[in-house]
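Hi, does anyone understand the following?
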Amino acid sequence: MTDIGIALADIRKAAERIGPYIHRTPVLTCSGLDGLVGARVFLKCENFQRTGAFKIRGACNTIMSLPDDLAARGVVTSSSGNHAQGVALAARLRGIVAHIAMPETAPEVKKAAVINYGARVSFCEWTLEALDKTADRIGKETGATFVHPFNSLTTIAGAGTVATELLEEVSDLDAILVPVGGGGLISGIAIAVSEMSPRTRVIGVEPEMANDAYQSLMAGRILPARPPRTVADGLRTSLGDLTFSIIQKHVNQIVTVSEESIVSAMRFVWERVKIIIEPSAAVPVAAMMGNKVGLEGQRVGIILSGGNTDLDRLPWIFSG
């Protein structure tokens, strides 16, 4: 264990634990993207993951780690969509009940998926206070164990398996670009990279309209998120104390991108790479396309975090 309570060994154990239940997602390249940005880019496609996003990794690791007596009481979480789907499916795979506190404004595609996975959903307004209050009430009423979307060791370890897969397949990466919301994904990736490939820079990317991680890193303390208005609905969450401490220690840099660049990057991936990604997954692509970091001539990994997009409200048709 490290001083933050998690190390590569924990991520390796998580990979073994969740291996039977998740996909080892592909790494794709696109010559058009390489030519546009002047670098060799490797896209880790978590949009092809079960539930359509990386979140199943952390949710599955947490739920499969629970002792039988706790698991029998079910699990509960709060989420705008991708984590909710991960918890719902992982709970179904373990044969237990999942309760989800979910904002009414979550994309319809994510609401439908959570319900289809068999979860019991309680809708509430989109505020962190409302989501926390709803999940807390359900937990007290049912005895269900809370599965944190990002700020727990098991969630972070599960998310870190994205990096172990990528680094096992692609060597000598100069940098990995990761979208940042609550920080669980980048925390797990940064811990894995620090031991597997210390020379590789881990760079977080946030929307300018939801840049609390960037502001917190600059201030040296967690700053609460302002009301988020970004099209990247999966990145509207504030950091937790655990993820913030890991980001401080292991993440090299956080940059931000505009709403217009997020939509442009998402459309580029749809049209040129020929795969569907959601706005949150387009955020690190936008940083690369906008030369936010200066990685010309380098080998760069980009984490495409998910592909759960509401096809009735595509962002280049409807404003965020």
